[in-house]
Task: inverse folding
């Protein structure tokens, strides 16, 4: 077989005949590595592409078949269960719990008599088996595990076992003998993922591929993999927190807004179906800078605590740091506080923290963020029983938010008594008015701060 070598960007997969210091496609530095490439058209051992074109009208309009795992937090993120024949990439930092999650998916499905093949390239069969038992796996003749990194051997197992679901843990340790570059290189990762994906699609096998994220927050060969698979799930969490959030960043079979919340416990991952209670459980009483905002992630409202801290800058350089909030949006909101409300933040360090490892992307949290910062600066606590809603514009106007009723209902459920709400949300909103919670209508940031930090 004739192979040629090329330089391949390990970040985006771009190819170049010559080495280059910087990738012209994705602009990353020092990312080119020499790899041997299988010429296109060369027969791959993963199976020839056999399907023939068929007429559109003869494609059966059956809804896709979905298998629920009974792990609700996962099923929801996937869009209502695992789609047969779909390929799901689970990315995340080492040690975050990807293998644990995948094993628990396997255990849940094997209980429903689905046949599972768990390919562990990183841990021995004994290690995986012990862990599965600790996670509650019982005797099952539907759950197979194997320690293997050779793609062709894995394809053979799939052909003999005929599993419904295959887990690859992880894609970075697999290698295809058809390619001479080392496991983990873009060519290997791409080839292995492509062959497995093709097999999954043609045989109706659901495939979970686990991928580690590199230090700078990228999956090795991230774009390459993200294009190949149907769904990309990221498993995230703060280093010292036991909470984990599963987030879809791409989903051909559902929305990408849903998140699943888990807690890593001694018996594995436990679903957190009421995240508000968890995220608010350690909230301090009567401390300035702490506020609660009802956000919507996907279809679900929940409440998170936002904390602001302002301190005099000790160096000449002021710092604006945020955890879980877009730094550009923070800069804008700080500017609104300075220019429109006359608060003096010029020589101060500004810190913003969203509790529980949540990433706040919902603009309805703006007014809460502004209030947390103002409360911290003025050292005036916001009342403990109040939640804050509103998007903030550049002229410090408070704009309406989506799904106000659902947010208020969640606040009410958790015992909050007052809600600051944009006046524009109060037009024709019968479903908001007949709540028990006291609504404080505001049109500007100033009105909100006057009501909250007096
Ligand atoms: P793991 O699933 O191996 O992470 P990944 O595959 O993403 O690298 O999770 C490893 C961590 O999870 C490890 O630090 C121990 C912890 N853990 C628990 O706390 N409880 C458990 O029941 C299990 C299986 C793991
Ligand atoms: Mg692992």
Result:
């Amino acid at each position: 077989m004739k192979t040629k070598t090329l330089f391949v960007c390990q970040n985006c997969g771009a190819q170049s005949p010559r080495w280059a210091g910087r990738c012209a496609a994705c602009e990353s530095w020092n990312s080119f590595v020499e790899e041997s490439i299988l010429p296109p058209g060369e027969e791959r051992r993963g199976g020839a592409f056999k399907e023939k074109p068929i007429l559109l009208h003869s494609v059966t309009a059956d809804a896709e078949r979905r298998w629920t795992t009974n792990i609700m937090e996962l099923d929801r993120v996937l869009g209502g269960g695992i789609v047969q024949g779909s390929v799901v990439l689970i990315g995340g930092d080492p040690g975050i719990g990807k293998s644990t999650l995948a094993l628990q998916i396997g255990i849940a499905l094997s209980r429903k008599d689905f046949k599972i093949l768990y390919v562990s390239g990183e841990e021995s069969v004994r290690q995986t088996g012990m862990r599965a038992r600790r996670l509650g796996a019982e005797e099952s003749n539907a759950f197979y595990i194997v320690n293997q990194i050779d793609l062709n051997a894995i394809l053979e197992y799939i052909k003999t076992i005929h599993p419904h679901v295959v887990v690859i843990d992880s894609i970075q340790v697999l290698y295809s003998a058809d390619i001479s570059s080392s496991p983990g290189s873009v060519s290997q990762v791409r080839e292995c993922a492509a062959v497995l994906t093709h097999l999954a699609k043609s045989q109706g096998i659901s495939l979970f591929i686990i991928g580690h994220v590199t230090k700078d927050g990228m999956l090795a060969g991230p774009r390459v993999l993200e294009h190949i698979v149907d769904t990309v799930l990221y498993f995230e969490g703060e280093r010292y927190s036991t909470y984990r959030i599963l987030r879809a960043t791409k989903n051909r079979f559902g929305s990408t807004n849903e998140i699943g919340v888990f807690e890593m416990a001694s018996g594995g991952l436990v679903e957190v179906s009421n995240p508000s209670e968890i995220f608010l459980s350690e909230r301090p009483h009567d401390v300035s800078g702490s506020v609660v905002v009802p956000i919507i992630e996907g279809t679900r409202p929940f409440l998170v605590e936002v904390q602001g801290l302002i301190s005099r800058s000790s160096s000449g350089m002021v710092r604006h740091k945020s955890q879980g909030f877009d730094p550009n949006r923070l800069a804008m909101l700080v500017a609104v506080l300075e220019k429109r409300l006359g608060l003096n933040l010029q020589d101060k360090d500004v810190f913003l923290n969203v509790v529980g490892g949540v990433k706040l992307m919902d603009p309805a949290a703006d007014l809460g963020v502004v209030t947390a910062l103002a409360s911290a600066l003025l050292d005036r606590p916001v009342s403990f029983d109040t939640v804050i809603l509103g998007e903030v514009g550049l002229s410090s106007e408070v704009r309406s938010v989506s799904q106000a009723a659902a947010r208020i209902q969640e606040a009410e459920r958790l015992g909050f008594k007052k809600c600051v709400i944009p006046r524009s949300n109060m037009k024709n909103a019968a479903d908001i008015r007949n709540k028990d919670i006291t609504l404080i209508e505001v049109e500007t940031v100033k009105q909100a701060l006057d009501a909250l930090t007096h």
Q: What stands out?
A: The first helix runs from residue 72 to 78. The longest strand covers residues 300-312. The two ends are 78 Å apart (CA to CA).
